Amino acid sequence: MANAVSAAHEEGGWARFLPPAFAVLRRLGSVLITLIGLAALTFMIGRLLPIDPVLAVLGDNVTAQAYQAMYVQLGLDRPLIVQFGSYLWDVMHLDFGRSLISGRPVIEEIGRTFPATLELATLAMLIGTGIGVPLGVLAAVYRNSVIDHVARVTSLIGYSAPNFWLGLMGLVLFYAMLGWVNGPGRIGFIHEFDLRPVTGFHLVDAALAGNWPLFRNVFGHIILPALILALSSLAYISRMTRSFMIEQLEQEYVVTARAKGLGMWRIVWLHAFRNVAVQVITVVALSYAFLLEGAVLTETVFAWPGFGRYMTNSLLAGDMNSVVGCTLLIGVIFVVLNLICDLLYRVLDPRTR
Length: 353
Hints:
The protein is mainly α and 353 residues long. The protein has two domains: 2-92; 106-352, MetI-like fold, CATH 1.10.3720.10. It has helices at 2-48, 53-58, 64-73, 80-92, 106-141, 146-160, 163-177, 202-209, 212-249, 252-259, 264-293, 296-301, 307-317, 320-348.
Protein backbone atom coordinates (compact mmCIF):
# COMPACT_ATOMS: atom_id res chain seq x y z
CA MET A 1 0.00 0.00 0.00
CA ALA A 2 2.82 2.35 0.91
CA ASN A 3 4.59 1.57 -2.37
CA ALA A 4 1.45 2.33 -4.35
CA VAL A 5 1.00 5.66 -2.58
CA SER A 6 4.64 6.49 -3.14
CA ALA A 7 4.39 5.62 -6.84
CA ALA A 8 1.25 7.72 -7.23
CA HIS A 9 2.88 10.61 -5.44
CA GLU A 10 5.94 10.32 -7.67
CA GLU A 11 3.76 10.18 -10.77
CA GLY A 12 1.86 13.23 -9.61
CA GLY A 13 5.16 15.02 -8.96
CA TRP A 14 6.31 14.42 -12.51
CA ALA A 15 2.92 15.49 -13.84
CA ARG A 16 3.39 18.92 -12.30
CA PHE A 17 6.29 19.60 -14.63
CA LEU A 18 4.47 18.58 -17.81
CA PRO A 19 2.45 21.80 -18.40
CA PRO A 20 5.50 24.10 -18.04
CA ALA A 21 7.52 21.76 -20.28
CA PHE A 22 4.80 21.78 -22.96
CA ALA A 23 4.58 25.57 -22.67
CA VAL A 24 8.33 25.90 -23.24
CA LEU A 25 8.18 23.52 -26.22
CA ARG A 26 5.27 25.45 -27.72
CA ARG A 27 7.13 28.72 -27.27
CA LEU A 28 10.30 27.33 -28.86
CA GLY A 29 8.25 25.91 -31.72
CA SER A 30 6.60 29.27 -32.38
CA VAL A 31 9.97 31.00 -32.31
CA LEU A 32 11.37 28.46 -34.79
CA ILE A 33 8.41 28.92 -37.14
CA THR A 34 8.78 32.71 -36.87
CA LEU A 35 12.47 32.54 -37.75
CA ILE A 36 11.80 30.27 -40.74
CA GLY A 37 9.09 32.67 -41.92
CA LEU A 38 11.49 35.56 -41.44
CA ALA A 39 14.14 33.76 -43.50
CA ALA A 40 11.58 33.15 -46.25
CA LEU A 41 10.59 36.83 -46.20
CA THR A 42 14.18 38.05 -46.48
CA PHE A 43 14.81 35.54 -49.28
CA MET A 44 11.86 36.89 -51.24
CA ILE A 45 12.99 40.47 -50.61
CA GLY A 46 16.34 39.63 -52.19
CA ARG A 47 14.59 38.17 -55.24
CA LEU A 48 11.84 40.75 -55.74
CA LEU A 49 13.78 44.00 -55.44
CA PRO A 50 14.56 45.52 -58.87
CA ILE A 51 18.31 45.16 -58.41
CA ASP A 52 20.32 42.75 -60.56
CA PRO A 53 22.90 41.07 -58.27
CA VAL A 54 25.09 40.19 -61.24
CA LEU A 55 25.30 43.80 -62.40
CA ALA A 56 25.87 44.88 -58.79
CA VAL A 57 28.99 42.68 -58.77
CA LEU A 58 30.34 43.21 -62.28
CA GLY A 59 28.97 46.62 -63.21
CA ASP A 60 26.94 47.67 -66.22
CA ASN A 61 29.70 47.25 -68.81
CA VAL A 62 29.85 43.46 -68.74
CA THR A 63 29.95 40.92 -71.54
CA ALA A 64 27.26 38.29 -71.98
CA GLN A 65 29.75 35.48 -71.21
CA ALA A 66 30.88 37.11 -67.97
CA TYR A 67 27.27 37.83 -67.00
CA GLN A 68 26.26 34.20 -67.55
CA ALA A 69 29.27 32.88 -65.63
CA MET A 70 28.52 35.09 -62.61
CA TYR A 71 24.82 34.20 -62.87
CA VAL A 72 25.69 30.51 -62.50
CA GLN A 73 28.28 31.23 -59.78
CA LEU A 74 25.66 33.02 -57.66
CA GLY A 75 23.33 30.04 -58.05
CA LEU A 76 20.60 32.04 -59.76
CA ASP A 77 20.17 29.38 -62.46
CA ARG A 78 18.80 26.81 -59.99
CA PRO A 79 15.08 26.39 -59.18
CA LEU A 80 13.71 28.85 -56.63
CA ILE A 81 12.95 26.19 -54.02
CA VAL A 82 16.51 24.87 -54.30
CA GLN A 83 17.86 28.39 -53.88
CA PHE A 84 15.73 28.86 -50.75
CA GLY A 85 16.89 25.55 -49.28
CA SER A 86 20.51 26.50 -49.88
CA TYR A 87 19.86 29.97 -48.43
CA LEU A 88 18.20 28.50 -45.33
CA TRP A 89 21.12 26.12 -44.80
CA ASP A 90 23.60 28.98 -45.09
CA VAL A 91 21.58 31.16 -42.68
CA MET A 92 21.56 28.34 -40.11
CA HIS A 93 25.37 28.44 -40.29
CA LEU A 94 25.41 32.28 -40.09
CA ASP A 95 26.60 32.47 -43.68
CA PHE A 96 24.94 35.41 -45.45
CA GLY A 97 27.34 35.39 -48.36
CA ARG A 98 29.92 38.01 -49.19
CA SER A 99 29.42 41.71 -49.44
CA LEU A 100 29.29 42.76 -53.06
CA ILE A 101 31.11 45.99 -52.15
CA SER A 102 33.98 44.91 -49.93
CA GLY A 103 34.17 41.22 -50.82
CA ARG A 104 34.25 40.29 -47.13
CA PRO A 105 31.71 37.94 -45.50
CA VAL A 106 28.56 39.79 -44.51
CA ILE A 107 28.64 38.32 -41.00
CA GLU A 108 32.07 39.93 -40.48
CA GLU A 109 30.76 43.29 -41.69
CA ILE A 110 27.80 43.04 -39.33
CA GLY A 111 30.09 41.99 -36.48
CA ARG A 112 32.24 45.06 -37.17
CA THR A 113 29.40 47.60 -37.25
CA PHE A 114 26.74 46.21 -34.91
CA PRO A 115 28.66 46.75 -31.61
CA ALA A 116 28.80 50.49 -32.32
CA THR A 117 25.02 50.67 -32.73
CA LEU A 118 24.46 48.37 -29.75
CA GLU A 119 26.60 50.58 -27.52
CA LEU A 120 24.88 53.76 -28.70
CA ALA A 121 21.35 52.33 -28.43
CA THR A 122 22.01 50.78 -25.01
CA LEU A 123 23.25 54.05 -23.55
CA ALA A 124 20.28 55.88 -25.10
CA MET A 125 17.92 53.25 -23.68
CA LEU A 126 19.40 53.55 -20.20
CA ILE A 127 18.96 57.33 -20.31
CA GLY A 128 15.45 57.13 -21.77
CA THR A 129 14.27 54.51 -19.29
CA GLY A 130 16.02 56.06 -16.30
CA ILE A 131 14.31 59.39 -16.93
CA GLY A 132 11.15 58.34 -18.75
CA VAL A 133 9.75 55.88 -16.21
CA PRO A 134 10.08 58.17 -13.12
CA LEU A 135 8.85 61.13 -15.16
CA GLY A 136 5.78 59.19 -16.28
CA VAL A 137 5.04 58.06 -12.73
CA LEU A 138 5.39 61.59 -11.33
CA ALA A 139 3.24 63.01 -14.12
CA ALA A 140 0.51 60.51 -13.26
CA VAL A 141 0.69 61.21 -9.52
CA TYR A 142 0.74 65.00 -9.97
CA ARG A 143 -1.66 65.36 -12.88
CA ASN A 144 -2.05 68.85 -14.39
CA SER A 145 0.92 70.09 -12.35
CA VAL A 146 4.22 71.56 -13.57
CA ILE A 147 5.75 68.08 -13.67
CA ASP A 148 2.89 66.83 -15.82
CA HIS A 149 3.26 69.75 -18.22
CA VAL A 150 7.02 69.15 -18.47
CA ALA A 151 6.36 65.49 -19.30
CA ARG A 152 3.86 66.46 -21.98
CA VAL A 153 6.17 69.04 -23.58
CA THR A 154 9.07 66.56 -23.52
CA SER A 155 6.89 63.93 -25.20
CA LEU A 156 5.76 66.44 -27.81
CA ILE A 157 9.34 67.43 -28.66
CA GLY A 158 10.50 63.82 -28.71
CA TYR A 159 7.69 62.80 -31.07
CA SER A 160 7.68 65.78 -33.42
CA ALA A 161 11.30 66.97 -33.73
CA PRO A 162 13.27 64.99 -36.36
CA ASN A 163 16.43 63.34 -35.05
CA PHE A 164 18.60 64.68 -37.87
CA TRP A 165 17.54 68.27 -37.09
CA LEU A 166 18.14 67.79 -33.35
CA GLY A 167 21.52 66.26 -34.16
CA LEU A 168 22.59 69.15 -36.36
CA MET A 169 21.41 71.74 -33.82
CA GLY A 170 23.16 69.82 -31.05
CA LEU A 171 26.44 69.79 -32.98
CA VAL A 172 26.19 73.51 -33.69
CA LEU A 173 25.42 74.42 -30.07
CA PHE A 174 27.26 71.93 -27.88
CA TYR A 175 30.23 71.13 -30.16
CA ALA A 176 30.90 74.14 -32.38
CA MET A 177 29.83 76.95 -30.02
CA LEU A 178 30.19 75.67 -26.45
CA GLY A 179 32.73 72.87 -26.94
CA TRP A 180 31.05 70.68 -24.31
CA VAL A 181 31.14 67.52 -26.42
CA ASN A 182 33.40 66.04 -29.06
CA GLY A 183 32.59 66.09 -32.74
CA PRO A 184 31.29 63.44 -35.13
CA GLY A 185 32.74 59.95 -35.11
CA ARG A 186 33.13 57.32 -32.45
CA ILE A 187 36.61 58.17 -31.17
CA GLY A 188 39.16 60.94 -31.62
CA PHE A 189 41.90 60.35 -34.17
CA ILE A 190 44.72 60.75 -31.67
CA HIS A 191 43.15 58.10 -29.40
CA GLU A 192 42.50 55.43 -32.05
CA PHE A 193 45.81 53.69 -31.44
CA ASP A 194 45.31 53.70 -27.66
CA LEU A 195 42.20 51.54 -27.87
CA ARG A 196 42.61 47.77 -27.38
CA PRO A 197 39.35 46.17 -28.64
CA VAL A 198 38.07 43.48 -26.27
CA THR A 199 34.28 43.69 -26.15
CA GLY A 200 33.66 45.92 -29.18
CA PHE A 201 32.19 48.59 -26.89
CA HIS A 202 34.62 51.48 -26.68
CA LEU A 203 33.41 52.74 -23.31
CA VAL A 204 33.75 49.30 -21.74
CA ASP A 205 37.14 48.64 -23.36
CA ALA A 206 38.51 51.98 -22.18
CA ALA A 207 37.24 51.33 -18.63
CA LEU A 208 38.69 47.80 -18.58
CA ALA A 209 42.06 49.17 -19.66
CA GLY A 210 41.91 51.89 -17.01
CA ASN A 211 42.60 54.49 -19.69
CA TRP A 212 40.44 57.34 -18.39
CA PRO A 213 41.57 60.00 -20.91
CA LEU A 214 40.46 57.58 -23.62
CA PHE A 215 37.20 56.95 -21.73
CA ARG A 216 36.50 60.70 -21.56
CA ASN A 217 37.19 61.06 -25.27
CA VAL A 218 34.87 58.20 -26.20
CA PHE A 219 32.18 59.46 -23.81
CA GLY A 220 32.45 62.94 -25.34
CA HIS A 221 31.68 61.44 -28.75
CA ILE A 222 28.81 59.18 -27.73
CA ILE A 223 26.89 61.31 -25.24
CA LEU A 224 25.28 63.75 -27.70
CA PRO A 225 23.95 61.16 -30.21
CA ALA A 226 22.84 59.02 -27.25
CA LEU A 227 20.88 61.95 -25.81
CA ILE A 228 19.28 62.64 -29.20
CA LEU A 229 18.17 59.01 -29.47
CA ALA A 230 17.15 58.91 -25.82
CA LEU A 231 14.75 61.83 -26.29
CA SER A 232 12.51 59.85 -28.66
CA SER A 233 12.45 56.76 -26.43
CA LEU A 234 11.99 58.94 -23.33
CA ALA A 235 8.93 60.58 -24.91
CA TYR A 236 7.31 57.24 -25.70
CA ILE A 237 8.18 55.59 -22.37
CA SER A 238 7.08 58.51 -20.20
CA ARG A 239 3.81 58.95 -22.07
CA MET A 240 2.89 55.26 -21.87
CA THR A 241 3.98 54.98 -18.22
CA ARG A 242 1.83 57.98 -17.36
CA SER A 243 -1.20 56.41 -19.04
CA PHE A 244 -0.68 53.06 -17.32
CA MET A 245 -0.23 54.66 -13.91
CA ILE A 246 -3.27 56.95 -14.22
CA GLU A 247 -5.41 53.90 -14.91
CA GLN A 248 -4.01 52.07 -11.87
CA LEU A 249 -4.26 55.04 -9.51
CA GLU A 250 -7.99 55.21 -10.22
CA GLN A 251 -8.56 51.61 -9.12
CA GLU A 252 -10.42 50.77 -5.93
CA TYR A 253 -7.48 49.03 -4.27
CA VAL A 254 -5.56 52.34 -4.27
CA VAL A 255 -8.43 54.09 -2.51
CA THR A 256 -8.61 51.24 -0.01
CA ALA A 257 -4.88 51.32 0.63
CA ARG A 258 -4.96 55.08 1.26
CA ALA A 259 -7.94 54.64 3.59
CA LYS A 260 -5.91 52.12 5.60
CA GLY A 261 -3.19 54.72 6.08
CA LEU A 262 -0.50 53.48 3.67
CA GLY A 263 1.92 56.13 2.47
CA MET A 264 1.37 57.57 -1.00
CA TRP A 265 4.74 56.55 -2.43
CA ARG A 266 4.46 53.06 -0.98
CA ILE A 267 1.14 52.69 -2.78
CA VAL A 268 2.59 54.10 -6.00
CA TRP A 269 5.77 52.01 -6.23
CA LEU A 270 4.91 48.81 -4.33
CA HIS A 271 1.35 48.37 -5.54
CA ALA A 272 0.38 50.46 -8.57
CA PHE A 273 3.71 50.32 -10.38
CA ARG A 274 4.03 46.56 -9.85
CA ASN A 275 0.75 46.12 -11.69
CA VAL A 276 2.00 48.05 -14.71
CA ALA A 277 5.55 46.68 -14.69
CA VAL A 278 4.75 44.10 -17.38
CA GLN A 279 3.33 46.77 -19.68
CA VAL A 280 6.29 49.07 -19.07
CA ILE A 281 8.70 46.24 -19.91
CA THR A 282 6.92 45.77 -23.23
CA VAL A 283 7.23 49.48 -24.02
CA VAL A 284 10.93 49.53 -23.07
CA ALA A 285 11.69 46.41 -25.14
CA LEU A 286 9.95 47.81 -28.23
CA SER A 287 11.75 51.13 -27.81
CA TYR A 288 15.08 49.33 -27.54
CA ALA A 289 14.41 47.30 -30.68
CA PHE A 290 13.46 50.40 -32.65
CA LEU A 291 16.60 52.17 -31.44
CA LEU A 292 18.76 49.28 -32.66
CA GLU A 293 17.29 49.33 -36.15
CA GLY A 294 16.16 52.93 -36.46
CA ALA A 295 19.27 54.95 -35.62
CA VAL A 296 20.12 55.52 -39.30
CA LEU A 297 19.65 59.31 -39.41
CA THR A 298 21.44 59.88 -36.10
CA GLU A 299 24.36 57.71 -37.21
CA THR A 300 24.54 59.59 -40.51
CA VAL A 301 24.55 63.03 -38.87
CA PHE A 302 27.23 62.04 -36.35
CA ALA A 303 29.28 59.93 -38.80
CA TRP A 304 28.76 57.00 -36.43
CA PRO A 305 30.17 53.77 -37.96
CA GLY A 306 27.17 51.70 -36.93
CA PHE A 307 24.81 49.05 -38.21
CA GLY A 308 22.10 51.38 -39.50
CA ARG A 309 24.52 53.43 -41.55
CA TYR A 310 26.07 50.26 -42.96
CA MET A 311 22.66 48.91 -43.98
CA THR A 312 21.68 52.19 -45.66
CA ASN A 313 24.94 52.36 -47.64
CA SER A 314 24.50 48.72 -48.69
CA LEU A 315 20.98 49.40 -49.92
CA LEU A 316 22.06 52.46 -51.91
CA ALA A 317 24.90 50.44 -53.47
CA GLY A 318 22.66 47.49 -54.36
CA ASP A 319 24.54 45.10 -52.05
CA MET A 320 21.64 42.71 -51.50
CA ASN A 321 23.61 40.13 -49.52
CA SER A 322 24.31 42.76 -46.88
CA VAL A 323 20.77 44.16 -46.96
CA VAL A 324 19.19 40.73 -46.55
CA GLY A 325 21.60 39.82 -43.75
CA CYS A 326 20.85 43.07 -41.90
CA THR A 327 17.10 42.64 -42.37
CA LEU A 328 17.26 39.13 -40.96
CA LEU A 329 19.25 40.35 -37.96
CA ILE A 330 16.66 43.05 -37.23
CA GLY A 331 13.91 40.45 -37.28
CA VAL A 332 15.88 38.20 -34.94
CA ILE A 333 16.34 41.13 -32.55
CA PHE A 334 12.58 41.66 -32.33
CA VAL A 335 11.94 37.92 -31.84
CA VAL A 336 14.58 37.63 -29.10
CA LEU A 337 13.36 40.72 -27.25
CA ASN A 338 9.80 39.43 -27.46
CA LEU A 339 10.94 36.11 -25.98
CA ILE A 340 12.78 37.89 -23.17
CA CYS A 341 9.64 39.91 -22.42
CA ASP A 342 7.59 36.73 -22.16
CA LEU A 343 10.08 35.27 -19.70
CA LEU A 344 10.02 38.45 -17.61
CA TYR A 345 6.21 38.38 -17.64
CA ARG A 346 6.28 34.99 -15.93
CA VAL A 347 8.72 36.27 -13.31
CA LEU A 348 6.89 39.52 -12.51
CA ASP A 349 3.26 38.49 -12.96
CA PRO A 350 2.16 35.15 -11.41
CA ARG A 351 -1.08 35.30 -13.40
CA THR A 352 0.85 34.51 -16.63
CA ARG A 353 2.42 31.32 -15.27
